[in-house]
Amino acid sequence: MCGICGFAGAGDVDTLASMNEAMVHRGPDADGLWHDAHEAVYLGHRRLSIIDLSGGAQPMWTADGTLGIVFNGEIYNHLELREELSRAGHYFLTDHSDTEVLLHGYRQWGHDLPSRLNGMWAFALYDRTRRELFLSRDRFGKKPLFYSLQKGTFAFASELSALIRHPQITADIHVGSLKKYFAYGYIPAPSTLYRQIFKLPGGHNLLFKLDAMVCHVTKYWDFVLEPFEHIPANPEAAWGEELRELLRKSVQRRLMSDVPLGVFLSGGVDSSAITAFAAEAAGGARMKSFCIGFEEASFDETRYARIIAERYHTEHYEEILSMERARELLPEIIGKLDEPMGDSSLMPTYLLCQETRKHVTVALAGDGGDELFAGYDPFRALGMVKWYDRLIPRPVHQAIRMAVAALSSTHVNMSLDFRLKRTLRGLSYPRRLWNTIWLGPLDPRDMEELFREPTDIEEVYAEAIEQWDACRQENLVDKTLQFYTKLYLQDGILVKSDRASMMNSLEVRAPFLDIELVDFVRKIPHAYKYRNGQTKYILKKALEPVLPREILYRSKKGFSVPIGRWFQEGSLSLESQGVFPYLHAPCIAGMAADHRAGRMDHRAFLWNIWLLNSWSQR
What is the pTM for the complete model shown? Predict the structure, then answer.
């Protein structure tokens, strides 16, 4: 796991060194700089050593010096690919470096290389013969990759903070992206907060030709729901067995490491399953497991994590996140955060990674399970809201919503009033906006007040609308699955995981996002993911031989933080902050006052504005 950067065009080695230094936390073990002054091409790399500790230094070159690469990630099928390439006549210089496999794989398969990879990656490969840079990002965007083409210079980096150190790269706030931040709680790819800087979306490649000085972005993979036409006689048994075997293999692949490794264990279904299979694969060795708890009981899941830790005999570590500890962590987090993101669980995730890094360098996590198997609470609401939307006249929606909004707010985790208010807020808008508005900090009406101008729904919510329309299935469950997997997972969950882990120089791996597992899961019909009020139905049935029922069928808490109570009590406050440009100060003050008085629940918006202000003032 590493950080990469580079550019073609104006600049010098000092510029490259500055960009590379901005990412030292992503790779504290080593750094590498390479440049060709004649061609004006520069490549930088920070290394967190995981595989082939002595032979994996970067930038790495083929023996003839024509192909060079900087690479961030892990390729889990690199040994199989190495064997195939060796049979094809390729000669390897390293013992077992997955980076070298990418070089020879590119020589063998060219731009088709990414479709053969099982792993997580962001890489930039320089082909000196063709005079081109070939960049690629893994299917789900687990590893970040930003780029910009300005003033005759093309530059890229793993983090915005590194990219904008290049003097040719101008970082002007894009108001449209700022609106997306308040609409989603994150900024979906390819947008960033800055006008001329972009994220390469997951499942995409970028080709930059030095002669023409142009970028060409292409999609090599997409997440498509294609349900099986044939249903076996006993799908729970047949598909359950296949799921267990695929997840078992995925976990085994991700135990590949030359450094100490452990698992995140929240006590939920996904992390518990990964712990079970990791402990099984470890044989006699004790797997290390790590958990974060909360002082407030409605948010705490540590007792469930202990059940699994005892069952599978892990060496278990726990840490509690209190408000006092959060205050200590927030300056650290914001100081390293390259782009604002509105998920408050960044705090406990950061603490989890910080504590985990004291013991291991690699951790397995449950990211992707909820998105692939319909594990979130909104799936439970879909049946009810479909009938509500059909039977209740649209003009009445707003009146009902305002009446429910007037109910006093409680701030326990996933309280009934919170879920009801969120659900009704979304139902005030067309179906294709439901998911975004249910999850987002603001709805279009509040955004109009915040920015003091009309909200162009087609523009602000373009990514959510695109995924709704792109889903080939017409049912609400599949369309919601498409939203969570293509947007919320890539630009919210995985960004949080990457930033929190790499701030602490920890590599996190996600077994649920193994491409073989994903290709099977996307073909399971939605009726076996959400069934008769049960979320993750087929996954839970598959894991019944592995996990106790009290883990499989307990209510979901999620990795939430009591920010609603913190803002109401004044533990977090906006009063000492200035107002971010483009935003209407009286609107912010009014929403903060309503929240403190318990008249409204604006926890998500207040956290997003607090983080944005803190990030801009660092």
Answer: 0.93
